[in-house]
Amino acid sequence: MLNNLIIFVLAAFLGTEVLTKVPQTLHTPLMSGANAISGITVVGALVAAGMTTGPWSTWIGFGALVVATINVVGGFLVTDRMLKMFGKKEAAPASVGAGQTNGSAD
User: Fold this and answer.
1) For the chain, how many structural domains are there in total?
2) What stretch or stretches form a coiled coil here (predicted)?
3) Residues of the domain holding 58
4) How many CB atoms lie within 10 A of CB 55?
5) Which of 20, 37, 54, 84 has a CA positioned 20 to 30 A from the CA of residue 96?
């Protein structure tokens, strides 16, 4: 148990350091590219929640499933938003009376 806790803490620190070094311009494309791979964490969380016998382990697996699902859904939402930024812009509809004067003679 202690070894697993040490590995978890080290992975958290390493992940934080790696993510803070990524420039903002690369963060969204990297996130969208890795989003499909993040789906594997959902499968792993399902396995972790289903293969355990104790209630404590089942709840931890369920928590992992919730967090992994939030990660994947959030990644898809960010990717969708990013792709909309590169789409064609719709032309603004012409307003009624555009280009007309208020009726006074100049």
Assistant:
1) 1
2) none
3) 32-85
4) 8
5) 84
